Amino acid sequence: MFSGLQWKVVGAIALSLVWSFKLQLQFKTVLNSKLVTEQLPREVSITSGGIITTLIKMAEAEGDDHDRRTIQNAPKAWKADIWAHFGFYEVNGKLDKTYAVCKTCHTKIKHVGNTTNFTNHVDRWHPELASKATQKVDTSQPRIDESLVSTLPHNSERAKRITRSVACFIAKDLRPYSVVENVGFRHMLKTLEPRYKLPTRATFTDSALPAIYKETKAKVMESMCKASRVAITSDAWTSVATESYVTITAHYISEDWQIASHVLQTRAVYESHTGAHMARLLLDVVEEWQLTDKSVVLVTDNAANMISAAEIGKFPHVKCFAHTLNLAAQRALKLPTVSRLLGRVRRISAYFHRSTKAKHLLEENQRVVLKLTSPLKLITDVATRWNSAHDMMERFLQLQAAVHATLLSPALNVDESDIVTLSRADLANMEEAVKTLKPVKDATVFMSEESSPTVSLIAPVYAQLLQNMSDTIGDQPLIQDVKNAIKTDLLKRYNSGAEKKILHTSSALDPRFKGLPFLTEEERLDVYAGVTSEAASLEYERRRRTEDEAPGRTGNSGTNEELLSVDDNVSDLAGPSAPKRRASSSLLIQAEFQRIVTTDLLSSFLGGLDGLALLEVYNGASRTGKKPALKGLLDCLEKDDTNERKRTAALLGLSHYMSGENQENVIKMCDAHGDTLEEAMKVMQVGLLIGYEGEWDAFPQQIYNVAVVVEETIVLHNLKDVALRCFLD
Question: Which residues, at least 6 apart from 324, have a Cβ–Cβ distance to it below 8 Å?
C-alpha cells in the first residue's frame, strides 16, 4: 500500500507526463514554422526539470520519425471537404485511423468519428486554408434539403397533370415545341414544383400534344353531333415562309343556346387552289367531322374558286359580308383622286414614324396645343385592310393642329411644304370622305361580332348601305365618285335566290328585323310563307320523334305507303312544269293525311260546322266585298234550321260555286246530296293536296283559298282562329 507521500510522487509524475505531451505538440508546431526554426536553436530547455526535458527530447525524436513517413489520403467514401487537409499514416500496410494527421503541420489529432476537431484545427492554425475550404463547394453533392426531396415519378398523377398543363400551354398559346428547352421556362417550373422533371421536347411532339388533340377532337365532335345545323367558314392564307394553308372553322348553337366556334383544322395545301380541289377539301372535312347530316352552310370570301367549290360541293353558300364591304371600299379607295389624297397623308404619317425627334415633339404639341393627356400616334394604312385608310385620315384630321405646330418647330429644321402637300380643298375632301366611309366602317365593326350570330344583319345593313350611298344634293365630285363606286360594287353581291332566301329568312327570325322593312310587300309575304312552312316541318319532325319514342308506339307502314302513292298521283296532276317538291313539304303532307286516316276528326269537324263557324267565314268574305255573290247563298243556308244541310253546303256548295256553276244549281245540289258526307270528305282531301303542292298559277286564286280553308279546318282543326284569318287578310 502506498503511503501518502508515495501517492503524491505518483501524482506528480502523471501530471508531468500530461504536461510533457501538450508541450510536445505545441513545441513541434513551433519548430515546423520556418520563421521559428531559423531564429531559435533546436535544443531548447523548457524547464529545469530533468523529467520534462527528457520527455520533450523523446517526443521530438519520435516526431522526426513520423515526419519521414508519407501521409495517405482519407478514403474516397469520406466526402467532407476537411479531408483535403488531413490524412492517415500507414501501419503494416493499413491506414491507422486512430489519429488523423494534418498535411500542413503534421499534427496528429485523435479521430473520434466526426470532423469537428479537424475543422477547428484548420480554423485556428491555418485560416488561409479555412477560407478556401469555405469557398469550394462540391456541386455534385446535394444539400440536405435537396437530398430529402424525391423526384416525382413520370407516371404519377401530379406529374401527368403538370405535363398536360404544359402541353395545353403550348397548344392554346400557339407556342413552339422548343419552349420546353428554354432556360427561363424550366426555371419557372423548377420553382413551382422542384420534384417535377420536365419531359423532353420529343415527348410533347410525339405523345402529349397528340393525346390532347385526340381528346379535344372527340369532345368537339360529340358537341357538334347534338347541334341540328352547323356552318363552316373557310379562308386560305400564306405564311411568312411562303407556305399555303387553309383554315376551316365550325360554328353552331350549343344545347344551352350559346354560339360555339371551333377551328377544325389548318391544312397545308400544295396543289393549286381550284374550285374542284377546294370542294374536295371541304367535303373531306365534313366527312371527317361527321357533319353530313347537319345541313352545312358554307361561308367564304368572294373569291371565284370558293364560289365554284360551293357549287361543286352543293353547299348552301353565304359570302362573308365583311369581305364584301372590304371589296366595295377598296374599289372606292382606288379612285385616282382618293388614291392621291391617301398618298399625301401617308407621306406625313411615314415621316413621323421614321423620326424619333419629330415623334417626341408631336407628343409634346398634343399636350400643349390639343390639351391631350394621353398622346396619340399617326396611323399608316395597310393595303389589305381598307378601314386602316379610314382610320389614317380620321387620325390625321384629329391631330392636324399638332402636326402643323410640330413641322413649324425650329428644332426640326425641316421645310413643312416638303412634307405636307395637302391643300385646303384636300382637307375638305378628306373630311367628307371620312363621313362617307363612316357607315361602311361601322358596318365592318358591327359584323365582326363573335359572341352572337350576325347573318340576320346582312340583309338590313346591306339595304341601309345602298341607301346611304345614293347621291344627295350638294355632294362634291369626289364624294359622288366614292358613293357610286361602293354602290356599284355592292349591287353585284347577294343576287342569287338561294342567298336571298337564307338572308331574308334569318332577318325575319330576328326580333329586331322581323318586320322586314327593307323588302317589298310581295317579298315579305314570300318570306313569311317560307318561314311558316319550315316551322311546320320542324314541328312535324318533333312530334314524329316524340311519338316514335313513346312506349308501345307502333307504326303503320301500310298507311304510309298508301299516302305516298296518293301524294305522287296528285303531284302528277300539276303537270310536267310543276316545281320539284321539297322533302319537308312531302313529309308534312304525309303526316297530316296519316293523322286524318288514323284519327276520328269527323265528329269534331261536324261539330264546328254545327256551330256555324264555316258560315261565319263565308259571311266575312261577303262583307269584305271580295265575294259579294255569296250573299244569296248564305242567306238561303241560314233560313234552314237543319244542321245536315249546313254541313253539306259547307263541304260541297262552295267548291261547286267557285267552279262557275249557277247559284240555284248549287242550292239544288245541296238538297240532292244531303247524305254524301263520305264522298265530300274524299273530294276535300284531294283538294288539299292540289292546293298545297301545286303551282300558284295552276288554279284560280279562289280555289286555292278554298283549299287553304279546308286544310286549316281539317288538318289544323282550328277553323275559327285560322281559316277566318286566311279569308279576311
Answer: 302, 490, 493, 494
* Nearest CA among 652, 646, 718, 719 for reference residue 682: 652
Residues 624, 728 contacting (CB under 8 angstroms): yes
Distance, in Å, from the CA atom of 694 to the CA atom of 573, rounded to the nearest integer, reads 8
Query: What is d(CA 689, CA 699) in angstroms, rounded to the nearest whole number?
Result: 13
Angle at 591 between CA 610 and CA 729, to 5 degrees: 55
SS3 at position 116:
helix
Phi and psi at 231, nearest 5°, equal -110, 140
Query: Side chain identity at 14, as an amino acid letter?
Result: A
Q: What is the pLDDT of residue 314?
A: 92
Greatest alpha-carbon span in the chain: 173
- Phi/psi for 317 (5° steps) reads -120, 130
Burial of 515 (0-12, 13-18, 19+ CB in 10 A): exposed
pLDDT of residue 651: 52
H or E element, residue 110: strand 108-110
Going from the first residue of the chain to its last (729 residues), give the mean pLDDT of each consecutive group of 10, the final group possibly shorter: 54 58 51 40 42 50 57 85 88 85 88 86 84 54 63 90 95 93 94 92 94 94 92 91 92 89 92 92 94 92 92 92 93 93 92 92 92 92 90 94 89 80 89 94 87 88 93 88 94 90 92 90 88 83 78 47 35 36 49 50 48 49 48 53 53 50 54 48 39 42 42 37 34
Angle at 313 between CA 310 and CA 314, to 5 degrees: 75
Distance CA 60, CA 49 (A): 17
Angle CA 385–346–240, to nearest 5: 45
How far is 652 from 669, CA to CA, in rounded Å?
8
User: Has this prediction a pTM greater than 0.70?
Assistant: no
Euclidean distance between CA atoms 589 and 690, whole angstroms? 11
- C-alpha to C-alpha distance for 590 and 600, rounded to whole angstroms: 17
Contact 114, 78 (CB under 8 A): no
- Alpha-carbon distance of 708 to 719, in angstroms, equals 11
Handedness of CA 27, 31, 37, 43 (dihedral sign): positive
- Alpha helices (runs of H) in 574-651, residue ranges in sequence order: 583-598, 602-610, 613-623, 630-639, 643-648
Rg (CA), the chain: 50
The candidate with the shortest Cα–Cα distance to 709, out of 683, 679, 680, 687, is 687
Strand, coil or helix: 599: coil
Residue 458 pLDDT: 93
Between CA 209 and CA 201 the distance in angstroms is 11
The answer to whether the beta carbons of residues 101 and 107 sit under 8 Å apart is: yes
HSE-CB for 19 with a 13 A CA cutoff: 13
Cα separation, 380 vs 694, whole angstroms: 60
Span between the terminal Cα atoms of the chain, in Å: 148
Neighbours of 189 (CB within 10 A): 17
What is the per-residue pLDDT across 557-583, written as a single tens digit (0 to 9) for each? 443 333 333 333 333 333 333 333 344
In whole angstroms, give the CA distance from residue 724 to residue 729.
Answer: 8
- Domains of the chain are 4-135 (no CATH), 142-225 (no CATH), 228-319 (3.30.420), 326-497 (no CATH), 600-728 (no CATH)
Q: Which of 670, 591, 589, 599 is nearest to 637 (CA)?
A: 670
Neighbours of 124 (CB within 10 A): 9
Question: Does residue 460 contact residue 494 with C-beta atoms inside 8 Å?
Answer: no
| 688 and 710 Cβ atoms separated by less than 8 Å | yes
User: Residue 484 burial (CB < 10 Å; 0-12/13-18/19+)?
Assistant: middle
Report strand pairing: 231-238 vs 108-110: unpaired
Q: Quote the Cα angle for 370-421-366, to 5°.
A: 15
CB 78 within 8 A of CB 118: no
